[in-house]
Design goal:
Blueprint (H helix, E strand, L loop, with lengths): L1 H11 L5 H12 L8 H10 L4 H25 L1 H10 L6 H21 L4 H10 L4 H36 L1 H21 L1
Helix pairs in contact: 2-4, 3-4, 3-8, 4-5, 4-7, 4-8, 5-7, 6-7, 6-8
Length: about 190
């Protein structure tokens, strides 16, 4: 089922309605849709590199707005939020996640927002745990913008050859990104 959905989203990336579809996929992925917007963003940038940063902006704005919906689902419709988390197989980690959010909520949002982990998990959990909303929105903008603009820059600059390598080793690149981010934070705190 997910493969069909993935293929459908990828075909949208090549249509004349690609930009609005990118916005819709980015918006819904942050709150309930299972396919990440990168599936559309990458081929759109490869097809029109001169619009790379425009596409990254569309993706970022829509993702942050969708994140706000995910937050609202968790905050106002907690039962629906828990149902979505159950559907994604994450409801059983609720208590551990609550403790993690209470101790390191901002870092959870920043780190998880950069990884391939479904962002809806973070947005819904942020609402359920009543994380500070203005800070949540700011962190979403930073992390999602960082992810989509980095992707746009890499694809615009290096094109299809790099995309093949990134897709082949996506988990490795995500881990490297997290290690660099954590290392930078530790270095700043030590200064």
């Amino acid at each position: 089922m997910l493969r069909k959905l993935y293929d459908w989203v990828f075909s949208l990336a090549r249509s004349k309605h690609a930009t609005p579809a990118l916005a819709v996929v980015s918006f819904t992925e942050s709150s309930f849709f299972p396919v990440p917007p990168d599936v559309m963003l990458a081929p759109m940038i490869l097809a029109r590199p001169e619009k790379a940063y425009f596409y990254a902006t569309v993706c970022t704005v829509a993702s942050v707005l969708g994140g706000m919906l995910g937050y609202a689902i968790g905050y106002y419709l907690t039962d629906v939020g828990m149902l979505i988390l159950s559907w994604l197989g994450k409801a059983d980690t609720f208590e551990a996640s609550k403790v993690l959010f209470q101790q390191h909520g901002a870092w959870v949002i920043l780190i998880k927002g950069l990884t391939p982990i479904p962002f809806k998990l973070i947005t819904i959990a942020s609402g359920i745990f009543q994380f500070n909303f203005p800070l949540f929105v700011a962190l979403c903008a930073i992390t999602r913008g960082g992810r989509f603009f980095a992707e746009a820059w890499v694809l615009k600059r290096f094109g299809p050859a790099v995309l093949a390598q990134v897709e082949k080793r996506l988990a490795m690149w995500s881990i490297i990104g997290i290690v660099v981010l954590v290392g930078a934070v530790v270095a700043v705190k030590m200064l």
